[in-house]
């Protein structure tokens, strides 16, 4: 499943130019110094001061989480050793200090969570808090890069790569601290509704004949452009994703079932390892699938547990009797879109970036993507 971003020589030369390892004359301060400064700034901001929601060990947990997010955001810029780009990003100073209002925004998020928190909904509120703080960093860091590198078209490649790195590293940190919250504080995400549902569908599809699987993908191919999430993708990424679905639906040489089986293994891996104490290094695409499903599971965690029952029952009938599956898919897509519509804009924007980056790093228009 792991894809690669295959780039032409000009693009590779550009990346090499911007990310060359040799230190420039405008080298940044040592990471140790930045780490200490970040930690001091976070701790001195008293994020949980006079907030009953996070006291004691949970106060420390919040500080550690915010420090970790700040550090990974900062680390994305460590390999830039080009004077022009460093000057545009003002890279001699820590990124964290330039994300205006980040800590104030996080404190507002914590205070809002405190108002809503009860003994009954503690797990939901805490998981939401983790995601909203992650979204705060993602939004501000990506916006900062876009603002500083928007003026010159020659910076588009570096802007895209930096954005991808920020989204991936922030997502990785979020998943790590979700696991720590569960293991160390017994505050866990209790719902895997979307993950389990997708796993069940993929397992069923993998057992069907090739023509039935392609029929399913064909219907998805036809419906996808109508979705709101699809419209958030860049033109190139959206088109390439459509090409992939088209090939999976219509091309005889494409191993559609094998591709779906690879996805199913990633989804099953989330189910099997979500609470595991073992730390497993994941590829970028696997990590992004996990964070996307984590977001979707969170969106559905307050709803009814039988949300997808009708879809799955209709789907089972289709697997046995055949026919067109478009109507069934249309209903479940509408269900998902309605759920997303009711969710907070900041979390939808976060999810959109994760989906976009996932497709960018797995869609490969310049080589045989199915080899």
Commentary on this structure:
Helices cover 69% and strands 0% of the residues. By secondary structure, it is mainly alpha-helical. The longest helix has 30 residues, at 156-185. The termini are close together. 33% of the residues are buried. It has 17 helices and no strands. It folds into 2 domains: 9-185, no CATH class; 193-362, no CATH class. It is globular and about 65 Å long. Residues 1-30 and 364-371 have low confidence and may be disordered.
Summarize the structure.
With 371 residues, this protein is mainly alpha-helical. 69% of the residues lie in helices and 0% in strands. It is globular.
Radius of gyration: 22 Å
Low-confidence stretches: 1-30, 364-371
Roughly what fraction of the amino acids lie in strands?
under 5%
| Overall strand count | 0
Q: Which term fits the overall shape? A: globular
List the secondary-structure elements in sequence, H or E.
Answer: HHHHHHHHHHHHHHHHH
Please bin the fraction of helical residues.
Answer: 55-70%
Distance from first to last alpha carbon: 10 Å
> What structural category do the secondary elements indicate?
mainly alpha
Compute the number of helices.
17
Could you state the oligomeric state of the chains shown?
single chain
Largest sheet: none
In round numbers, the mean pLDDT is 81
- Tally of individual domains: 2
Strand-helix topology:
Layout: H1 9-19, H2 31-44, H3 57-75, H4 83-89, H5 95-98, H6 102-116, H7 122-148, H8 156-185, H9 193-206, H10 210-223, H11 228-231, H12 235-250, H13 256-273, H14 284-300, H15 309-321, H16 326-341, H17 345-362
């Amino acid at each position: 499943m792991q894809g690669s971003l295959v780039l032409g020589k000009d693009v590779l030369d550009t990346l090499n130019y911007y990310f060359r390892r040799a230190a420039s004359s405008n080298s940044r301060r040592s990471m140790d110094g930045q780490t200490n400064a970040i930690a001091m700034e976070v701790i001195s901001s008293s994020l949980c001061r006079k907030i009953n929601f996070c006291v004691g060990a949970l106060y420390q947990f919040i500080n550690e989480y915010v420090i970790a997010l700040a550090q990974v955001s900062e680390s994305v810029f460590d390999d830039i050793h080009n004077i022009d780009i460093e000057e545009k990003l003002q890279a001699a100073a820590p990124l964290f200090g330039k994300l205006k209002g980040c800590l104030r925004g996080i404190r507002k998020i914590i205070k809002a969570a405190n108002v809503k928190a009860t003994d009954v909904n503690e797990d939901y509120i805490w998981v939401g808090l983790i995601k909203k703080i992650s979204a705060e960093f993602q939004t501000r860091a990506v916006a900062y890069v876009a603002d500083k590198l928007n003026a010159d078209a020659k910076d588009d490649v570096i802007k895209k790569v930096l954005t991808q790195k920020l989204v991936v590293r922030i997502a990785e940190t979020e998943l790590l601290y979700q696991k720590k919250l569960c293991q160390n504080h017994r505050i866990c995400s209790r719902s895997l509704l979307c993950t389990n549902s997708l796993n069940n569908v993929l397992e069923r599809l993998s057992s069907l004949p090739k023509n039935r699987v392609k029929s399913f993908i064909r219907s998805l191919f036809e419906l996808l452009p109508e979705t709101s999430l699809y419209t958030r993708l860049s033109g190139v990424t959206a088109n390439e994703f459509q090409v992939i679905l088209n090939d999976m639906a219509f091309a005889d040489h494409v191993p559609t079932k094998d591709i779906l089986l690879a996805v199913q293994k990633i989804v099953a891996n989330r189910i099997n390892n979500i609470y595991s104490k073992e730390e497993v290094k994941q590829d970028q695409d696997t990590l992004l699938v996990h964070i996307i499903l984590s977001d979707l599971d969170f969106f559905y965690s307050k709803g009814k547990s039988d949300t997808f029952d009708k879809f799955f029952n209709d789907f089972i009938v289709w697997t046995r009797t055949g026919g067109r599956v478009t109507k069934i898919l249309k209903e479940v897509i509408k269900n998902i879109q309605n759920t997303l519509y009711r969710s907070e804009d900041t979390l939808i924007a976060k999810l959109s970036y994760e989906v976009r980056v996932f497709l960018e790093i797995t869609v490969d228009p310049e080589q045989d993507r199915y080899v």
